[in-house]
Amino acid sequence: MNQKNDSKDAAFDVVIVGGGMVGAALCALLANAGMHVALVEAQNTPLLPATLKLTQPTPRVSALTPVSQRLLTWLNAWPAMVSARVTPYHAMHVWDGEGSGEIRFSADEAGVLVLGHIVENDVTLAALNAQIAGHPKVSRINGARVEALQTTATGRWLELNNGRKLHAPLVVAADGARSALRALAEIEVSEDDMGQHAVVTTVRCETPHAGTARQVFLAGEPLAFLPLTVAGDDHYCSIVWSTTPDRAKALCELSADALGAALGNAFEHRLGQVEVRGSTHRFPLVQRHAREYVQPHLALVGDAAHSIHPLAGQGVNLGLIDAAVLAEEVIQAWRRGAPWGDERILTRYERRRRGDNAAMLGLMKGFKLLFGAQNPALTLARNVGMSGMNRLVPIKRVLMRQATGERGRLPTSCR
Ligand SMILES: Cc1cc2nc3c(=O)[nH]c(=O)nc-3n(C[C@H](O)[C@H](O)[C@H](O)COP(=O)(O)OP(=O)(O)OC[C@H]3O[C@@H](n4cnc5c(N)ncnc54)[C@H](O)[C@@H]3O)c2cc1C
Predict the structure, then answer these.
(1) Alpha-helical runs (H) found in 171-225
(2) Domain contains 330
(3) Among 27, 287, 344, 406, which is most exposed with the fewest C-beta within 10 angstroms?
């Protein structure tokens, strides 16, 4: 199959729609195995390490687990990320702003080197794009959107808004939470509006972050200060404050000084005075789960399959494992000459991923309900439970293995 065909119609082994972190990782996995891949992305120009602006951190960050780090290392993206900016964290501290409950985790207790890294999404994406830029097995189609989807006996046709038509035995939706391809495939989604918006910005604090990710629960509103080291300065933090839509709007309208004061107060000045150093954005928090991840010749990955409350920083970590598992199943089938777009092959991917993703979505909902409870008995139980658990190292170790992504049978690229 000629992936470099510049005529209007072209055939590939796999077409991926959406070149975010998950789509780009999937593209690199498949292309490195020798499959011909087309990557269709709505943005005009792909981010590359050389085009990153690193003077100020960008406000969208992710807490990447060691499992994600291993996948990014397998893809050879990690070294470029380290050269750009990644901030390891060795400890986590979570407390209840409504009481005395708290829990602390450390890498030492969990028996690992780091609990994870805070990384700007642009840094991850640029490093992944560098791996697929100029790859002989990849055709990148920028500035294009999918307009129509048709089924054939051997695969799917995609029609793009630039008039191009692409055919493949497998098309993958990696086009995010509001996936257009998922809608074209008429896959239903269960939606759970969490009644919150996440406010994100970057701050510099009076006290260094000491490689610790911190989160306080303020009546069910998690406020996270995630450590960032910028050119050796370890006073920076990335903020994620999940709060009511009205309050989020009001916070975004504050002056930088007033927002810094509001953040400092809400965070009980645990890191001293807070100075806002970046732009402020807000995102509505809606948990979504696709009713099916696969159809004949079609699969969903990442936020197109599930979007999750950011309070435990799991979204892209789950999406990267989706990409690794789907790639593993598809490459195995392709290598043995089996039809890799066949629903039986794709169902193996869904079986391996749905349970893990569903469990994490349920857990986030439970956390939000538990920490949002105003009932005094529940508040007491929550505080006693948190502090009691803090003293139980074996239980904490199990929790840490979950949080660091070490769950279930991981694909080879993540081990
Ligand atoms: C405030 C906040 C904090 C978060 N923190 C964390 C965290 O700490 N850890 C974590 O793991 N996750 C976190 N997440 C979640 C994480 O950001 C997402 O899970 C992740 O970005 C999803 O990646 P994706 O590649 O699946 O989708 P996206 O990042 O949404 O990428 C989709 C891509 O598809 C393209 N596209 C869209 N529509 C089309 C179309 N029709 N045709 C072609 N291309 C299209 C887009 O341009 C984009 O490039 C957070 C989310 C929020 C909102």
Answers:
(1) 180-184
(2) yes
(3) 344
Nearest CA owner, ligand 1 atom 21: 316
Q: Which CATH number belongs to the domain containing residue 357 in this structure?
A: 3.50.50.60
Asked if residue 327 belongs to a domain, the reply is yes
CB-ligand 1 contact for 145 (6 Å cutoff): yes
CB 413 within 8 A of CB 71: yes
Secondary structure of residue 112 in the 3-state scheme: coil
Q: Is 21 in the pocket of ligand 1 (CB under 6 A)?
A: yes
Q: Does a structural domain hold residue 260?
A: no
Return the ∠ at Cα 244 (arms to 240 and 245), rounded to 5°. Answer: 95
Q: What is each CA distance from 126 to 25, 38, 129, 155, in whole angstroms?
A: 11, 18, 5, 31
Write out the chain's pLDDT in tens, 415 residues: 333 444 456 999 999 999 999 999 999 999 999 999 999 999 999 999 999 999 989 999 999 999 999 999 999 999 999 999 999 999 999 998 887 788 899 999 888 899 999 999 999 999 999 999 999 999 999 999 999 999 999 999 999 999 999 999 999 999 999 999 999 999 999 999 989 999 999 999 999 999 999 999 888 789 999 999 999 999 999 999 999 999 999 999 999 999 999 999 999 999 999 999 999 999 999 999 999 999 999 999 999 999 998 887 889 999 999 999 999 999 999 999 999 999 999 999 999 999 999 998 988 887 777 666 666 666 666 666 667 667 667 767 777 777 788 888 899 999 9
In a domain, 262, yes or no: no
Q: How many domains does the chain have?
A: 1
Ligand 1 centroid–CA 385 distance in Å is 34
**What distance in Å separates the CA atoms of residue 411 and residue 252, rounded to the nearest whole number?**
41
